[in-house]
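User: I'm putting together notes for a lab meeting next week and I want to include a structural view of one of the chains we've been expressing. I don't have a solved structure, so I'd like a prediction I can at least talk through. The sequence is below, exactly as it appears in our construct file.
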Amino acid sequence: MPGGSEGAEDPPAEDDEVIIEEIETNTAGADEGVAASSAEATTAQDKSAQEVEDGDGGDEQRPDSSQDKEMLRIEKEKENMSAVEKLERSLLWKAEGNDFFKKNEIFKAVDAYYHAILYCRDLMQNPQYYPNLKHTPENRKLAQDLCESVFTNLALCQTKYAGTLPADHAEKTKVLEEAIKSASEALKINAKNVKALYRRALARSSFAKMAKNAEAQALLGEAKGDLLAAIAEDAQNRDARAELKSVQERLKTLKREEIAGERRNFSFGSSLSALATKEEDLLGDGSVRKRISVQGDSGRWLNEDWLAPDAVIKCVVHAKCTMLSYGGDEGQDVKHSAPPVTISFILGDSDMHEGFHVAVKSMTISQVASFTFSPQRLKADGGLARLLPDAQGKTSIWEVTLVKYVTWTDVHRNGEQLQKIQ
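Assistant: Thanks for the context. Below is the predicted structure for the 422-residue chain, given as structure tokens.
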């Protein structure tokens, strides 16, 4: 359980239909014929159960502590319980935890949820490899669903309790870390659990408020990834969308603060001048070389998951491109005077030159840079590529400005309805 006194005040509980993860409590699908003979717990399970019991963020327990004694009592009791009995006991503890939560008795709810996990977590093992547990595939599936639900509820309780603590309270960080761990445990069982994704994002976002700039940006970046994943599964989730907007605004603020700090520590003009003279080989073979001329907002925006062929979220980038010259080993033989072309394309779309995908992925929003492309990186022949000037199959130099990006989700996953995320 999270540390603290039983008398700590919490805000009234929200609608339990929204915040409490429920699963079917009918055990008819479980193996009724499992005997009540001994089911010896494995060493690995003892360790995982200990980790669950110790997850309260409190001080390290002595061997004779009340928590350890209770855990040992449960493990001893389980030796004489069938798989069905373990599941039934776990379901009862979960139901009790839900009742405590609805009464806003957070500490008692957490304690009940821990008991629920201890009674059934070993049943998540594969029956084929753990015959001594005497459980069936149906028992295993019910145990997985139950643990996923309980870990999701634990994350809610821990985040809720952390929200009642002052920012400088020594326990707040520990409790938020446990909330992240609890949500992560649920996501190990089901990576698409929208509530677990959302609650882990909330915990990370809260944690970021107490962290220094660099760590806060990393935490918010992870929270953003969780929220995008949640929205990909539930495009109508208003809470996730609202939190995503908040996280993005905080990321922008932290980036501005970071840049302001750099300006105080060194001459920003000199820094940009130094950057302008440094060329970066993006692929390591000289085929795409970059030289920054104007810095962007320095914010991280790219999620590599968007590039997967079956990705639900697609990213459309908008960039302004000008071919400056082409020909010769360095692409400088023939000057090109055509006006810039503003293009929009989906990241990963084969209709756009590979070189431009590599280029924009290396940039930040509003950044301006010159790119030297070898011919093999400008081989696309689709309609999008033909909107750009033709480099005549030669090395070429381009100026590219990354204007913005927009993400869309395929609501029904059939391409018929796309919904803008940001």
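A couple of points you could mention at the meeting. The beta strands are 279-281, 288-294, 313-326, 334-335, 341-346, 368-373, 396-410, 418-420. The two ends are 38 Å apart (CA to CA).

User: Perfect, that's what I needed.
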